[in-house]
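I am writing to request your help with a piece of structural work I have in hand. The matter concerns a single protein, recorded as an amino acid sequence and a row of backbone structure tokens. Could you please explain, in whatever detail you think fit, how the structure tokens follow from the sequence? Thank you for your consideration; the sequence and its tokens are set out here:
>
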Amino acid sequence: MWFNVPDEYLYLLDGLRPNKELSRPRQDRYSKEEIALLKENYPSLGPKDTSKLLGRPEYSVIDKATELGVKYEFWTEREIEIITENYSKLPKKEMDKLLPGRNYSSVKAFANRRGLIKNNRWREEEKAIIYQYYPIYGIIRTTELLPNRNRNQVKAFIDNHRIKKQIIPSQASEETN
């Protein structure tokens, strides 16, 4: 249904009409240069910034990247290296320090997708090392023998199992003096 609008009120409708001068003509095809820019920048910049770079809508950039098989790598190579090397042996607080600005739940999800797990269960050989070496050498040297464990984990195990450190006579005389 159409209404007859008096001419003096037409200015109110101007905002409702498409402004052909401001709207960008539809570009379905990507130029070779745009494809090269997308391939080069999309993995590191992601869809939002790549769409700004190309002057195209974000959905269009995502569609084209998917069509080309180009994926946005959410993690930098350095972050992947840090997670791979440290996730199973460092506690949450230490991982937070190594990956500032990253949410720990996303780190955990990434590690799980990569098959990395927190090593919470103690293997028999780890237990044997603690029982054998802690009473003589203490926590620092014992922790060095357990590359997948940190000092806090070893200390918690020692406390939970009430393992006592041996006092060697030469140490006892030094402590009393």
User: Anything to note?
Assistant: Confidence is low (pLDDT under 50) at residues 17-25. The chain has three domains: 28-73, 77-113, 124-170. Residues 32-54 form the longest helix (23 residues). Helices lie at 32-54, 58-68, 77-86, 92-98, 104-113, 124-144, 151-160, 169-176.
